[in-house]
Amino acid sequence: MKTRIGYGLGALAGLGDASAFAALVDGLEHHGFDSLWLSERVTGPAPDPIIGLAVAAGRTRRLKFGTSVQVLPGRNPVLVAKQLASLDVLSGGRLLPAFGLGVASGAEQQAFGVERAERAPWFDEALPLIRRIWTEESVDHDGPRFHYEGLRVLPKPVRQPFDVWLGGKAPGELRRVGRLGDGWLASFATPADCVAARPVIEAAADAAGRAIDPEHYGAMIFYSRTGVPDTVMEALRARNPNASPQELVIDDIAALGPRIEAYVDVGFSKFVLVPFGSPADWDTELGEVAEAVLSLQT
User: Fold this and answer.
1) What is the pTM of this model?
2) Which helix (H) or strand (E) holds 101?
3) Burial class (CB in 10 A: 0-12, 13-18, 19+), 85
4) Could you tell me the domains of the chain?
5) Who contacts 244 (Cβ-Cβ below 8 Å, separation ≥6)?
6) Residue 186 and residue 189: Cα distance in Å, rounded?
7) pLDDT mean across residues, the chain
8) Residue 276 has pLDDT above 90, yes or no
9) pLDDT for position 16
10) Where do runs of H (alpha helix) occur along the chain?
């Protein structure tokens, strides 16, 4: 099992200026992290993930990059397929696409123009359509939301098949990973949560005549050097009421390695480390994190 360790910025992370983002990207490449992951929140300070990843692609040669996650409901699936395939080709096949339904927020749903109850049906029609666009020369589709005749979209992604990771942790979201996804990126989930979720995914995949690669299970691991504000603590309790906030956010970089090992012990092998807050110096921060965890990368 190949263990890979990436680094991400949460949906509420502000980047400061262009030089700070450049320092983050350059530091990840220099220190040997596997990948960079950018989250999407239209109403938050984080940049659009695709724009940010395109900048990262232009500054690096080895670093892979993904979305954690890109919201699909409300977007034209043809343009999404074109955009992501183009980024993959121009980066030499380094893109790791990951999709989600979007956060349950009235402000976000307003921005995307999709009612909450419509998000899942939209997603379930759009994602298989995107997959067809990435693989088929010509696509005919007649669905509740989209209709295409002889649709041809180029370029195609470098890697075929182009693996798609999904987020989410509710039972319906886990079953969707099994039915439609190639991997699961858990968020605000303890190792015990991951153990409980995996059979749900695998059962749904089996029922759909599919199988999820055993190495395509990953987790986002959050950490903070300066503590977590009370408002964030409350949000953490809401996201996972069965876990204490201390289980969901690590307060000591030295504890990142043991936490990764705890996930590896239950069969997870892909990780995204996410800080709360931005450090004064990215190279120093990434150097210390790299020293704590990258010996586990295999």
Assistant:
1) 0.95
2) none
3) buried
4) 4-296 (3.20.20.30)
5) none
6) 6
7) 93
8) no
9) 67
10) 18-31, 49-59, 77-90, 106-112, 116-135, 171-180, 191-207, 230-239, 245-248, 256-265, 282-293
Cα–Cα distance for residue pair 46/224, rounded to 1 Å: 18
DSSP of 144-211, one letter per residue? SS-EEEEE---PPPSSSS---EE---SHHHHHHHHHH-SEEEE-S--HHHHHHHHHHHHHHHHHTT--
* Cα four-point dihedral sign 40, 45, 49, 51: positive
250 has pLDDT over 80: yes
pLDDT tens string 127-166: 999 999 999 999 999 999 999 999 999 999 999 999 999 9
Lowest mean pLDDT among 2-6, 172-176, 223-227: 223-227
Burial 270-290 (b: 16+ CB within 10 A, else e): bbbbbbbeebeebeebbebbb
Q: Which helix (H) or strand (E) holds 139?
A: strand 139-142
| 92-111 mean pLDDT | 92
